[in-house]
Predict the 3D structure of the following.
Amino acid sequence: MAYSDIGILTGLLCQQPVKLKTINCMKKTVYLIICLLLPVLSFAGVLKGVVKDDKGEPLPFAVVFIQGTTTGTAANADGIYALTLPDGTHKVTAQYMGFVPSVFNVTISGNETVTHDYKLKEQSLNMKEVVVKANGEDPAYAIIRKAIKRRKFHLDQVKSFQTDIYLKGLFGTRKTPKRILGQKIEKEDLGVDSAGKGILYLCEEEATYYSKANKERTIIRAVRESGEPNGVGLSKMPPVVTFYENNVNILQGITPRGFISPISENALLYYKYKYEGDFTQNGYVIDKIKVTPKRQYEPLMTGYIYIVEEDWAIHSLDLYATGKANLELLDTIRVEQLHLPLKKDTWVIKNQVLYPSLKIFGFDISGYFVTIYNKQEVNGNIPDSMFNAKINSSYAADATKKDTSYWTQNRPVPLNEAESKDYRDKDSMRIRYEDPKYMDSMRRKRNRFELMSIVMGGYNFSTKGNKNRFVTNSLLDGLIGFNSVEGLNITPKLWWTRNIDTSQYLSGKLAARYGFSNTHFNAMGKFVYTKRDRKWLGKFWSVGIEGGRYVYQFNPNSSVTPLYNTYTTLVLGQNYMKLYERLGGAITYNQSLGNGLSFALKAGYQQRNPLENTTAYTWSNNPKMTDNTPVPLKGLGWAKHDAAILSVGIAYRPGYIHYIS
């Protein structure tokens, strides 16, 4: 572009007279920059406030969105919301299950902030005029049948789905024990107050989710864990939970096969339904149905599901399950969902909130995971290259590198005071904990010997800078035992780890053994060098060497532990363990490629020596002691022999989470 062309462009865009000779060069340059930027600058304002009921109580996680779209956000646990809006006039709706939505017309100009508090009234319900004869069924059954009939349509109509996701997860405790297995709980280290209440875990994530023909991919673009700058968040959290599936997997590992959906193909065999009434919203008639399991101890949920008439689609739901639904790990789980119409006959999920709770080891833990979905796209063009059979979750290279200012600008759900305090406190604690002087003082404190460490978990000792760490076994881990071959035996073990740097370390294990009845002393050692990839989590290789003479069980996969065998031998007079002595050595090599594929190689030599009972001592008045010959070798003879062993192992883990920093 010629100099005169720039001047003309500047004059045209800025509505200035084209007088190149009289315009100051500096002013002209400023005009040019401003005018060239005007077309690409977009101003965004913020609508913020609180969503409350008509009694003034906040409505947690209420949905706030631009009417006629699926673009929006959710309030936080205290009902506080903040929605970024472009220039112009917008109808913004606040919606909460069981309440009448409220609409606010707002005009945004530039980067201004507008405050508006929503006050929602409880939703009154209309009752259908139906005639229910004696022994007749509730009107809800007719509605549910239509929803079940339409279930597969709504499931199959989504050939591909894409959405942006914001997830905030929190676990807090209402009660904290003073000790666990004899170990004192430092409440300050957990981030809870003197009463044992506080946040144990807090994270935020931004991701994009893709699905197509039973293939899924989640790309996590940003993640933040309170107090853990390198935390990777919740990569296995189901991005989209659909109750159009027959079996619904809300969270990994809480039920063996998922929950049976209230509109599953055979739902009428499992659930009872009650019609609560209907209401009209944006031209849609929505039925409220109460859902109750017919039987206990089956994977079923209780609560309410709202069905859109004519479309017979899910409008929203509020369902929960307890231990009577065969929950594993958790005591209760509750799920809330709200769906919005994307286009005719197509409803998409807008937000989801999960409320898990459990009581374990004296902790009373509860929390929530709120998920906001934006930019939903149904049956768009998603290239097949997006999906990889080996990877279903991956992280952007800078996912954990986003700073506080990034989250302040981009999080759609505001932090409440407790969450803000948790970030501040744990960041301060992390800085404190990373201080070399503090780390050294804590190291010396942890190095103090306590009798319970020998009884329960073993004694730990670390050198300055935690360069070296030593751990012993405990009485519960077989430090002292008794068997019919060695009699009373002492088996001290020492594990050692040396951190060379952040990506490589040495580890070792030394084990000694002495039996007072057979007067044998044995010892063995193992040393391994490991090299980890600095940028690829889970990618490493290691090489090791081991050797010595030691006593082993004939069946290496036996469930009989030395502690249990000590009990059965002394108290019951039954010696279950069958032992032999092994002299030998081996070299090992292990490698993980960081994508779910790993392999191991081991080559070694062993000289195996049979052992015999040397004592029949027991406290039992009716002993049933047997000789030390393993049952599979009875009548076949058990002799000393040598063996050269080469073993190769290959493992593949589908759906391995791939993280590159």
